[in-house]
Automatic annotation (TrEMBL):
Required for flagellar hook formation. May act as a scaffolding protein. GO terms for biological process: bacterial-type flagellum organization. It comes from Paracoccus liaowanqingii. This is Basal-body rod modification protein FlgD. Gene3D superfamilies: 2.30.30.910, 2.60.40.4070. It comes from the Bacteria. Keywords: Bacterial flagellum biogenesis, Cell projection, Cilium, Flagellum. Pfam families: FlgD, FlgD_ig.
């Protein structure tokens, strides 16, 4: 718009420099307000009842690493239906296996108390879980295990990201269930 004004102004009666500066400032203010309005609309849409901001304080089921401290974690176990042996594999934040235990072929939620092979409590930290389902000696499936973690922050960029208590995080699209804290 300013370019068109400059091209079409009367060369015998040019616009004063101060008037031009005022118009520039006005246009910049209008542009900034439009950007602010768009950002506020985006936030309002995400903060509504179905937005991820409403998830803060709830527990989310995720396969991302979650914080383990003093309280047990709830894991959602779903082994392969034809398995006769199922092992829960626990990995630390670096991906190193720290525990492996036979849990049987049942499915449902279990409380994981964070014990190592020697029975001692594992150190506080981020842990991820997987199941190895076997029939006889054959590995028939390896699946990631969902764990529940309390949501403490919702980030809106890139489709949304949730931050969990203790520092773990996951994209909002990877959350497979929500529940009120127990």
């Amino acid at each position: 718009m300013l370019t068109a004004q400059l091209k079409n102004q009367d060369p015998l009666n040019p616009m004063q420099g101060t008037d031009f500066a005022i118009q520039l400032a006005t246009f910049a203010g209008v542009e900034q307000q439009a950007l602010s309005n768009r950002f506020l609309e985006q936030m309002a849409g995400q903060a509504g009842g179905s937005g991820i901001a409403a998830w803060i304080g709830k527990e989310a089921r995720t396969t991302a690493p979650v914080w383990f401290g003093d309280a047990p974690l709830t894991l959602d176990i779903a082994p392969h239906g034809q398995a006769d042996s199922v092992q829960l594999v626990t990995r630390d934040a670096g991906g190193r296996e720290v525990a492996r235990e036979e849990i049987g072929p049942g499915q449902g939620q279990i409380d994981w108390r964070g014990r190592g092979p020697d029975g001692a409590k594992l150190p506080d930290g981020l842990y991820a879980f997987s199941l190895e389902s076997r029939r006889g000696e054959e590995l028939i499936a390896e699946t990631r295990v969902g764990a529940y973690a309390r949501i403490v922050e919702a980030q809106f960029e890139d489709g949304g990201r949730l931050v969990f208590e203790g520092g773990g995080s996951a994209p909002a699209a990877e959350v497979t269930a929500l529940r009120d804290p127990t």
